[in-house]
Amino acid sequence: MIPLNITDYSVRCRYRPIQMITRSYAAKGEKMITVSNVSVQFGGSTLFKNVNLKFTNGNCYGVIGANGAGKSTFLRVLCGELEPASGEVAMPKEERLSVLKQDHFAYDEYTVLDTVIMGNARLYEIMQEKDALYAKEDFSEEDGVKASELEGEFAELNGWEAEADASKLIQGLGLSEDILYSQMSTLSGNEKVKVLLAQALFGNPDIILLDEPTNHLDIDAVRWLEEFLSEYFGTVIVVSHDRHFLNNVCTHIVDIDYNKIKMYVGNYEFWYESSQLIQRMIKQQNKKNEEKIKELKDFIARFSANKSKSNQATSRRKLIEKLTVEELPASSRRYPFIGFDMDRELGKDILQVDGISKTVDGVKLLDNVSFTLGRTDKVAFVGESEQAITMLFKILMEEEQPDSGSFKWGVSVTTSYMPVDNSDYFNGCELSILDWIRQYSVKDETETYLRGFLGRMLFSGDDVYKPVNVLSGGEKVRCMFSRMMLFGSNVLLLDRPTNHLDLESITAVNNSLINFKGVVILASHDHEIMQTTANRIIEILPEGCLDRQGTYEEFIDFKKENGLL
Ligand SMILES: Nc1ncnc2c1ncn2[C@@H]1O[C@H](COP(=O)(O)OP(=O)(O)OP(=O)(O)O)[C@@H](O)[C@H]1O
Ligand SMILES: [Mg+2]
Question: Which helix (H) or strand (E) holds 229?
């Protein structure tokens, strides 16, 4: 073992042939990542301290915890991107580690095929060197020797299969093979996410680190990923808030809470049940001890003045000292409060959409979409193409222009919008949370007023002075919710608002949408939210749309009954 120092982990790689190796390999089990005494703190606050863990080959570890608990930070420590305040991470020097990249624009100038192959840095490097050598006009004898060395290493890394392997991954994730030769910059956000995922999985890395990989994936791609990870021979460490996904892939759960990181064997459900049981047992024991202490105290109070009983009182005093009520430490799992108040009542006319069509890069996303909304509508938008729904929302918010058709909001309508991608609101922004939210406050810019909105979203005390560019994924979404609450709008447009959120926050979002008195226009992956919020479903179809009153489940039943599913 050597201390991990990943400035260039490809250098220390030992490559294996690309064909799938089954989990029996893991049985040999000598490979592991060891985390010793690791502590991380930012400013004054400790995220976790004295973490000691071992991650072994063939297992899939689900990292869980509240928004802001430190999951992404822990992954950054594991891959060597962040130096812990103390302690170290060690792994065998020949291990190859790959990380799902979060920067969607980093590969814009490359083709999809190159981007995927870059997942194996050494292989990509050899390919570049080979191309440069063969392109030389004055190809010398020395170049010939070098080329044959490179060819040897290329073959050892199964370079001849690289394109086929990349293609398999891309198709598994539901993209067409043709996309391999497209430029990354021409891809949609969803497609880019899939390519970056294929990059992370390419070339059989020994260790795969994935931070919320399912966030932008459709159901089929999630299923494919579940299967891929379940059969993976190496070590998989994956952060996720998706319970279903965690249950399907994890052999272990790594929980970040109470400023500690603890590992449990089993899937999410098993962790949940057992952690609830432990909490209940501590509470019961505490209750019993508290009752006993009270009883003893009462006895002492009654008899300590009484000489004949004073000996007994003293011995009971000693008993009290032995009884302890365990402090239940504060969990980072907390419920925010989301409540949307309308500053203005809605009139009769809400929204009329007439024949909107839109084509992007030759793909027809919206084709003659028409509908009219009433003041009691809570509409969930569904459809094969999430891009199409996002485009419709953007058109309604005037961020995009339709190719044809028009829409009209009612005069009483005020809107607030939660886009699926909030990076424009935070990228390059160095404002504190407090100053960030102040930008959006028309009525009142005082700290007390703004803190009211931030506090509900769990930003209190000095938190509000944190710069927004260091916030975790979920914390940024919480800022966006504070902003939406501030507007007091009567129509809410939410494009997959629960991406990045922890369970407690998802529940808060769900309740707020159920209780909201205005109009909701929603797209979401969350079955529960769709079912409990929407009273009308509009499916965007390749041609037009299917519009039905009723709940989400009624809509699904209708489709089944009519052979549409
Ligand atoms: N450079 C920094 N300075 C101060 N605080 C920071 C810095 N980087 C991260 N943080 C804070 O550390 C905490 C942990 O962040 P991290 O991104 O690891 O959370 P997370 O568990 O991944 O949350 P989420 O589920 O929302 O993605 C957050 O409160 C974040 O604001
Ligand atoms: Mg995170």
Answer: helix 219-230
Considering the segment(s) 2-120+157-266 as one domain, its CATH architecture is: 3-Layer(aba) Sandwich (3.40)
Q: Indicate whether 218 pLDDT > 60.
A: yes
The count of other CB atoms within 10 Å of the CB of residue 8 is: 10
Tokens standing for 532? 């409990």
Backbone dihedral angles phi then psi of residue 56, each to the nearest 5 degrees: -115, 160
Best mutation site among 39, 72, 331 for ligand 1 pocket (most ligand atoms within 8 Å of CB): 72
pLDDT bin (cut points 50, 70, 90) of residue 288 is: confident
Domain spans in the chain, listed from the N-terminal domain onward: 2-120+157-266, 271-322, 351-561
pLDDT value for 335:
92
- Comparing 250 with 286, the larger pLDDT belongs to 250
Q: Please give the torsion angle defined by the CA atoms of residues 120, 421, 394 and 399, in that order, rounded to the nearest 10 degrees.
A: -90
Centre of ligand 1 to C-alpha 519, Å, is 33
The pLDDT of residue 18 is above 70: no
Backbone angles phi, psi at 197, to 5 degrees: -70, -45
Average pLDDT across the chain, whole number: 89
Q: For the whole model, what pTM was predicted?
A: 0.84
Q: Are 15 and 203 in contact (CB under 8 A)?
A: yes
Alpha-carbon gap, residue 461 to 515, rounded angstroms: 29
Atom from ligand 1 closest to the CA of residue 66: 25
The CATH architecture annotation of domain 351-561 reads 3-Layer(aba) Sandwich (3.40)
The set of residues, in sequence order, having a beta carbon less than 8 Å from that of 296 and lying 6+ positions away, is 316, 317, 319, 320, 323
User: Can you read off the two tokens belonging to residue 438?
Assistant: 């102040």
Map residue 238 onto helix, strand or coil: strand
Same CATH fold assignment for domains 2-120+157-266 and 351-561: yes
Backbone angles phi, psi at 494, to 5 degrees: -130, 115
**DSSP conformation letters of 131-153:** HHHHT-SS--HHHHHHHHHHHHH
pLDDT tens digit sequence for 254-284? 999 989 999 999 999 889 888 888 878 888 8
Cα-to-centroid distance, 477 and ligand 2 (Å)? 11
Distance CA 360, CA 545 (A): 18
Task: Give dist(CA 268, CA 277) in Å, integer.
Answer: 14
